User: Fold this.
Amino acid sequence: MERRLSAILSADVVGFSRLMGFDEVGTLTALKAHRRELIDSKIAEHHGRVVKVTGDGMLVEFPSVVNAVACSAEIQRAMPARNQNVPQDRRIEFRVGINLGDVIVDGDDIFGDGVNVAARLESIAPPGGIMISAAVRDQIGERLCLAFEDMGERELKNIDRPIHVFRVSLDDAQLAPERLSLDALAVPSKPSIAVLPFANMSGDPEQDYFADGLVEDLVTSLSKVSGLFVIARNSTFAYKGTNPDIRQVAKELGVRYVLEGSVRKAANRLRITGQLIEAASATHLWADKFEGAVEDVFDLQDSLTETIVGAIEPSLRRAEIDRARRKRPGSLNAYDLYLRAMPHVHANTPADTDEALRLLNDALKLDPNYAAAHGYAAWGHEQRFFRGGFHPEDRAAALEHVDIALSIGANDAQALSIAAFVHANMTRDYEGAIGVLERALKLDCNSALAFGFSALANAHSAQCERAVEHAHKALRLSPFDPLNYHPYCALAIVNLFRSRFAEAAAYSTLAIQSNPHFSVSHAYLAISQVNLGNVAAARAAAQRLREVAPGFTVGVFERGPSSTKALAAALRKSGLPD
Assistant:
């Protein structure tokens, strides 16, 4: 059954039954006149297709959300003049709801969740008003000179999840005077990417299936990355067999980043190359090549998908952070403030934590329902609690943000992962945290963040095999991630529990190299060196620990996760004060 991504407009007449009760013939005559003289021509002008008309309502499909909103705004603005000489209680007024979603095509009709959400948005629109989903708002960007009022998340009838809703304000703004082109879509506020068909460079037409399957897997896997807008495969495969200009592709698809690549077969080997490009500047953000045996083609496809997604996600994150840094302070929105907080979150020093919390709090003032920002704010307060004196207000703030992140971020793998880990550290409920982290990994099986936190949670609860598995998974997915001190610390903890002190020292050192300012890594190294009999090395690690965190003591370590009497005793022998 055919599917496609469409902008869906649902409209109906306010109080139609009441109007029909007053005057059936007059109401139907007036409604037909509005459609003939205004509505049908506007829909055609904006390249819409009337799917069905149901008495007082209609369902219209557009190839562009920009055109859908522009069309509805022009119609709603024209209606007051058409109703000027009609008594108030006899006027025909429309409600409109617009959504961007996947639809099932059956002949000339369309069905599915995308249609249902549009209908429910229409039902909550005021007379003469337009309600749109957040997906529509993201696509519009600044393409229309319209104001949008953020109505927050709303529970809609028979929709199994809250929908973030915006109201289109028609009072003060005017539509852009120029006709909007279908070949220029607005870039969403969040990072957006299109995966172009990979070129088959082998001269073997049979390898097309492999290249196409790899791209399809990449699109599916990238779609699971929280906060990433991914263009559907059907749209990008329109470029198959062409050599398009990347800037034009990005303009036509409304994306910020483009991934392209090639497949080459030589003897019994396959070589796949990929490169990630920021379209506006044509800058290469990441490039790599991968090889494998032809006989292992499907295993290779799975491995490539996992590796490429793992490499792309942190590359996109760094590019987005750099983009936010270039924006003027007065133009920052919640997403930009969140991005600016990320390097400070990753640094994990007292000063950086304070700055991260300042930026995250500013983001949450603009968007109180930003689940990931609540998660990172919880983490910031958790860091301050354990490394800043165990102040009860930090504990309370951490748990408050955890509760919000868990309640509004049920489908956000990133928010769930951070909130679960923070809650576990504050309450020692590692079993509960592991359950939430497993849910996060079902939502996004390529999340290095979730695997890293899961490795630590399992290590803290002495589930060593699972901790090792998830630590290595995190490192394989994102080998250059600034948060890799998490899986390295998990491996250090496991080896300390197993009395494999040389391995514990090695992983502690790798954690320190990943983030020299994370105090606990130095503690694990000092403990490892004590147990190896390297007293001088242990004292050097303890001294470095005091330089990184002057207030760190054995008592602080004892109140943290994974502390045992044996580990605390070893840390005391390194010269760290009680």
Q: What stands out?
A: The chain is about 55% helix and 15% strand. The first helix runs from residue 16 to 22.
